[in-house]
Amino acid sequence: MSGRVAGLLLSLLCAIVLASPPVPAQVVRDAAPLEFRDRAEEIRFHDLVAELRCVMCQNQSLADSNAQIAHDLRREVFDLMRAGKSDAEIRDFLVERYGEFVLYRPRFGGHTWLLWLAPALLVLAGGLVIARILRVRSRQPMAADEDQEW
Amino acid sequence: MTTPAPSPAPAPRRGKATAAVIAVVFVALVGLLFYGVLVSDRADREALPSPLIGKPAPEFSLPVLHEAGRLVSSRELHGQPYLLNVWGSWCPGCRIEHPVIARFAETKRLRVIGYNWKDEHADALRWLEQFGNPYWLVLVDYDGRKAIDWGIYGAPETFLVDADGIVRWKHVGPVDDAVIANELGPVLDAIGVPR
After folding, report:
1. Does B93 touch chain A (CB under 8 A)?
2. Radius of gyration over alpha carbons of chain B, in Å?
3. Model pTM score
């Protein structure tokens, strides 16, 4: 029963979402869904487009976006897959044209090392600060704290 | 803290050093945030830098809007620089920049080529008839496949390709007089396009 209600709500939600596409700048042409050969190909496609960023609507993945360019790029990714390209080759194809920005997981390299290492460096710096504070405190006689009201 | 506790000798110096570090970090953070605010004011803050700059323009062979059956290839366009302006009749930004592009084209400094992207043929022709056709040539990319090679993701976009077919400059969003004067002009001077 609740399943049927949920299904109904879901289809209602879908209808609302489909009825109000976000600012369709262009004529949606060739909106036919991609036809996958098998489940494995479909999973591979979805994994790939989920980690590619839509270049127009920059906070959505290619998988999520309803923008025309995202549709075009999904089709391109699909065609490249059919042409026998590997995931790495498809990513390279898009990076060559749209830049590193299209990757939600940018590659480790000359201009992204800081991005990748920053969290570790920050944790390290924080650890050093804490270690320093603890060392200083342990050296101070406990009596020094007695006057403090907190 | 009613009576100041007798602290070990190096403590004040260390306290000063700590305060200095905190001050530096604080000022750096404020600077970063202030920079972020300044940058957020730029109209093109979301424009992606094109990886094609300094690289050969993609090869293409595309139909011409005004001549059914004629294809123009990228190689035919080499030898002289050209400005490639991506537009569509569906694109509001293109209408905004249209007078600017038209004025620039009138200077005849270099060829201005239109790139009609994902547009209906009749709509494109009507748009040019209504607002004027500033283009030396209009190429048609009906399904948007070739646009992916250019890294095009939203009209209007404008590319500068030099005489050797190398992409020299790209602008995302409507071109205005300031962009032409401050960005395109210097690049044209640098690659030796006579005024």
Report:
1. no
2. 26
3. 0.73
